[in-house]
Design brief:
Radius of gyration: 26 Å
CATH architecture of the largest domain: Alpha-Beta Barrel
CATH class of the largest domain: Alpha Beta
Helix content: 25-40%
Distance between the termini: 62 Å
Number of domains: 3
Shape: elongated
CATH superfamily of the largest domain: Glycosidases
Strand order of the largest sheet: 10-11-14-17-18-19-20-21
Structural class: alpha/beta
CATH topology of the largest domain: TIM Barrel
Strand content: 15-25%
Number of helices: 17
Number of strands: 29
């Protein structure tokens, strides 16, 4: 057994003589461990400590033992801190010894937030097999693409055969549908050997509607003061909130210590109502960093912060929560409106202009009346604090038919906006399949029991009743049923499309290579970036580092001759050595072959941009 710096105090822990059990159940009269061996069972009572934790050790058993906790002599339930649920959320827990895995990633010290390229994926639909092992086999190709981190949508055990993962109820147990706990460890270990970080999406704002047995151990897990859109929130600031806060802090610590996870994306932090000081968000981040530091690694903490609150990423000593980044939706929303003319729901706040896109690049976030309490963005806020995307699981999967951006716009304009994403200084996030313009949708899918499933299906379709296209109930019935197996199957990627759609795949590889290796584009500094909108159809990004200069021109409209005066300083316009580094119209990217050109000198320099083309120039003396 190897040594480790952090150890979970509760749950089932393998010892030299057996297994030590501990579970918090402060209001229960009795708790016992029920061991399962085939058809036989053994029951061992636990003793209660003053802190409301029931404890005991059973000799002669070890990893692989299956067990439940019987509460007050009644029904037996899975362990709230179960590390494995091999029979699902209603089955027994399994004892796991996390110290025996033969890690090979000792040289790995964690990712650098300033150089991240994040690739978000759903384990169950990324490969035909939908498993940790199958994903592991794809890591070399993801490395070749040029990403530096994968972000797994939630993998905690939840009900059913398939799910997005946001209905998790056994927060410490990787889904048995994806593989064993050691399969997840093998994935992380292999990623680290390749230099790829592994982030995990974790959900602490609510638990799923099926298989949530926390209340059987204590009502104090949940808050009577706060509710979320998904039901009761957890008790962050009420009576006996301490053990509840520790429950999620230990969960964050377990992913980092026991699985070597490199970063956590905290789901919907704006819904985690908490009047405490320090906030639970700050305490999760501090706990995660402490555990990672004990292992000589760093961890990246990300918030999905719907209020656009940049204080999440500010240092604690400056009144912040100390996270590294937040999902910054404004770039996505401005580009989506510009490309598709979407104006319903939250898109109504965005004009979709080239000015709006440029403003999002310059500021990271575009705060409006929709975000009245958000702190203003300042120059000191690094580009790495803002995560940009043109697709993610929400913005694709929460559309009625799961259609991706490139399903709505032509290939040329898709290439243009992809170039804007990957040449902006902010951290880019790709959603699985966008790099090869996947033909498959990503739909919302669940696998709940029939009664609950009918409610989910009806609720899903009702969500879209406010949209003009779905006023008619008959049309709402055409929205794919989340409960249908076909909905899940339709969402699986066809990885052979990397070859079938080779042009856009090569464009993504080349843009990511420039982002990594180019002396300017590899320096992700907002202070050395200026985006502008020289016309209603063009976004310009000027990036510089030292004496090196780069100009990105993204043309979303018809062919145009653009006078550069006003886009760059006169001294740069007068430089003669304008070298075209990349154009999305190149044949190798599936383009027409019509290339951008420059003419004239001095203040009269003009760039000819073909229709729906983006280009990158280096400018030198």
């Amino acid at each position: 057994m190897t040594e480790r710096a952090w150890e979970m105090a509760l749950g089932a822990t393998v010892t030299a003589d057996g297994v030590r059990f501990a579970v918090w159940a402060p209001d229960r009269r009795s708790v016992s461990v029920v061991l399962s061996t085939g058809d036989a069972s053994e029951e061992v009572p636990l003793r209660r400590d003053e802190d409301g934790v029931w404890r005991g050790e059973i000799a002669g058993i070890g990893a692989g033992t299956r067990y439940r906790y019987r509460v007050d002599g009644g029904q037996a339930f899975p362990d709230p801190r179960s590390r494995s649920q091999p029979e699902g959320v209603h089955g027994p827990s399994e004892v796991v010894d996390p110290t025996t895995f033969p890690w090979t990633d000792a040289p790995w010290t964690g990712p650098d937030p300033a150089t991240l390229v994040i690739y978000e994926l759903h384990v169950g639909t990324f490969t035909p097999e939908g498993s940790f092992a199958a994903l592991t086999a794809e890591l070399p190709e993801l490395k070749r693409l040029g990403i530096t981190a994968i972000e797994l949508m939630p993998v905690a055990e939840c009900a059913g055969r398939w799910n997005w993962g946001y209905d998790g109820v056994d927060l410490y147990a990787p889904s048995h549908h994806y593989g064993t706990p050691d399969d997840l460890r093998r994935l992380v270990d292999a990623a680290h050997v390749l230099g790829i970080a592994v982030f995990l999406d974790v959900v602490y704002n609510h638990l799923g509607p099926e298989g949530n047995y926390l209340r059987q151990f204590s009502e104090r897990y949940f808050s009577e003061r706060y509710r979320t859109a998904w039901g009761e929130g957890l008790n962050w600031d009420g009576e006996d909130a301490g053990p509840v806060r520790q429950f999620v802090m230990d969960n964050a610590a377990a992913w980092i210590a026991e699985y070597h996870i490199d970063g956590l994306r905290l789901d919907a932090t704006h819904t985690m109502a908490d009047a405490s000081d320090p906030s639970i968000i700050r305490e999760i981040a501090e706990c995660a960093r402490e555990v990672a530091a004990q292992a000589g690694r760093r961890v990246v903490m990300i918030a999905e912060e719907g209020r656009h609150e940049i204080l999440r990423t500010r240092p604690v000593e400056e009144g912040g929560d100390g996270l590294d980044a937040i999902w910054a939706d404004d770039f996505h929303h401005e580009t989506r409106v510009a490309l598709t003319n979407a104006h319903e729901n939250y898109y109504a706040w965005y004009a979709g202009t080239t000015n709006g896109i440029a403003r999002a690049i310059n500021q990271g976030l575009v705060l409006t009346d929709r975000h009245p309490k958000s702190a203003p963005i300042e120059e000191r806020d690094p580009a790495s604090a803002f995560i940009f995307c043109i697709q993610n699981h929400d913005q694709v999967g929460n559309r009625p038919y799961g259609d991706r951006l490139h399903h709505e716009v032509n290939a040329k304009r898709y290439a243009v906006v992809s170039t804007l994403l990957l040449t902006s200084p902010e951290t880019p996030l790709l959603f699985m399949g966008q790099e090869f313009a996947a033909s498959t949708p990503f739909l919302y899918f669940t696998d709940h029991p029939e009664a609950l499933g009918r409610q989910v299906t009806a609720g899903r379709r009702e969500e879209f009743s406010g949209f003009r296209a779905f006023h008619d109930p008959y049309l709402r019935e055409t929205i794919p049923d989340p409960q249908a197996e076909s909905t899940f199957r339709a969402s699986k990627l066809h990885l052979q499309e990397r070859l079938l759609h080779a042009g856009v795949y090569e464009l993504y590889r080349e843009l990511l290579r420039l982002r990594r290796d180019d002396p300017v584009l590899s320096q992700h500094d907002r202070a050395h970036t200026r985006a502008s909108a020289p016309s209603a159809q063009i976004v310009a990004i000027h990036r510089w580092w030292g004496a090196e200069q780069r100009l990105v021109l993204a043309n979303l409209g018809h062919a145009i001759d653009l006078e550069i005066a006003g886009v760059l300083d006169l001294t740069l316009i007068q430089r003669r050595a304008w070298t075209l580094r990349l154009a999305t119209s190149e044949l190798r990217f599936g383009g027409t072959g019509e290339m951008p050109t420059t003419s004239g000198i001095g203040t009269g320099r003009v760039v000819h941009l073909p229709a729906r083309t983006a280009a990158i120039w280096s400018i030198a003396d």
